[in-house]
Amino acid sequence: MPTQHTPPTRDTRQDILDAAQIIISGKGFAAVGLNEILSAAGVPKGSFYHYFQSKDAFGEALLESYFEAYLKALDTLLQTPGLTEGERLMLYWRKWVDTQTNGDPEGKCLAVKLGAEVSDLSEPMRKVLLRGTSAVIERLSGAMKNGIADGSVKIAGEPGQIAEMLYQTWLGASLLAKIARDAQPLLSALATTKRILGETR
């Protein structure tokens, strides 16, 4: 006798967040209206406040969702089989260049896009950005420690400080690349990173 399966319930809240990430990655937070987001998500207009108490709370949830997915992807990348820890770290930075230069808003870094815009406007969103970026730096620091252990990373300094400095370098390079509409700041950051990590290839 065939078994009846109940179709999965649509996660409307996540649909809104996913649609919003693409739009806001391209336009910014303040410039995007709620109706545009709801239309892109295929959600009836006027239902926004059923899922979020305010646009500020929505922004907080958007960043939390973004960093959850980002950190999950970073964890997967840093476990790429067949590579040394140093090679995994360089793979991360090379992917950063690719995502920030390929023209696809879905891959753009929300920390870069929204950091300056919302940090002075929303304390809850600023705190999510701080937690998220700190978690990225913590993972990079851990990877550097593993790289020192396997001999593939050679740094002159404490891994946590180097990880923070490199992440700051890449955030700045991403902003300069946007201003110049040129990938050169990112390529310069990549060359600097290779030198700092002792990458010879």
Walk me through this protein's architecture:
This protein is mainly alpha-helical and 201 residues long. The chain is 70% helix and 0% strand. It has helices at residues 12-27, 34-41, 48-51, 55-77, 85-101, 110-118, 123-150, 159-180, 184-197. The longest helix has 28 residues, at 123-150. The chain is elongated, with a radius of gyration of 19 Å. The relative contact order is 0.11. Residues 1-9 have low confidence and may be disordered.
Instruction: Indicate the overall shape.
Output: elongated
Elements, N to C (H/E): HHHHHHHHH
Mean pLDDT: 89
Strand tally is: 0
Helix percentage range: over 70%
Calculate Rg over CA atoms. 19 Å
Query: Helix count?
Result: 9
Which structural class should the secondary elements be placed in? Answer: mainly alpha
Which strand-content bin applies to the residues? under 5%
What's the N-to-C terminus distance?
61 Å
How would you sum up the major sheet? none
**Segments where pLDDT lies below 50 for 5+ residues?**
1-9
Topology, please?
Blueprint: H1 12-27, H2 34-41, H3 48-51, H4 55-77, H5 85-101, H6 110-118, H7 123-150, H8 159-180, H9 184-197
Which key terms come to mind for this protein?
single chain; 201 residues; 9 helices; 0% strand
Entry summary:
The chain is mainly α and 201 residues long. It is built from 9 helices and no strands.
